Amino acid sequence: MTDFSLSDLERIVADRAGAAPEESWTAKLVAAGQGKAAKKLGEEAVETVIAAIAGDRAPLVSESADLLYHLMVVLKIAGIPLEDVMAELERRTGQSGIAEKASRQSS
Questions:
Q1: Is residue 75 within 8 Å of 41, Cβ to Cβ?
Q2: In angstroms, what is the C-alpha Rg of the chain?
Q3: DSSP one-letter string for 30-92
Q4: Do the beta carbons of residue 27 and residue 19 sit within 8 Å?
Q5: pLDDT per position as a tens digit, 41-90
Q6: What is the pTM of this model?
Q7: Is 55 within a domain?
Q8: In a designed cystine with 99, which of 38, 78, 84, 95 is the match (CB 3.0 to 4.6 A)?
């Protein structure tokens, strides 16, 4: 088991976002803007789904890592700290997923 966390990834993304775009993929995505980063996130989400359906563990692990990384970049560009996402997840644990989804549909 690794000690590496999403918080660690968030810090790395923040550090690399300030680099020169020609030196860092993260900086290049940030410089390209939210549209490009979000498109990349969508591509990685589709690739993760395909890997999950295929049932092959190694590609699913790899694509999941890509997905989480690109999500951190999109959140960075949007100025949303991981802490906000985690707080929302924590808030949702107080009710069943079915009840939580129903409450969103009535909003």
A1: no
A2: 16
A3: HHH-HHHHHHHHHHHHHHHHHHHHHT-HHHHHHHHHHHHHHHHHHHHHHT--HHHHHHHHHHH
A4: yes
A5: 999 999 999 999 999 999 999 999 999 999 999 999 999 999 999 999 99
A6: 0.87
A7: yes
A8: 95
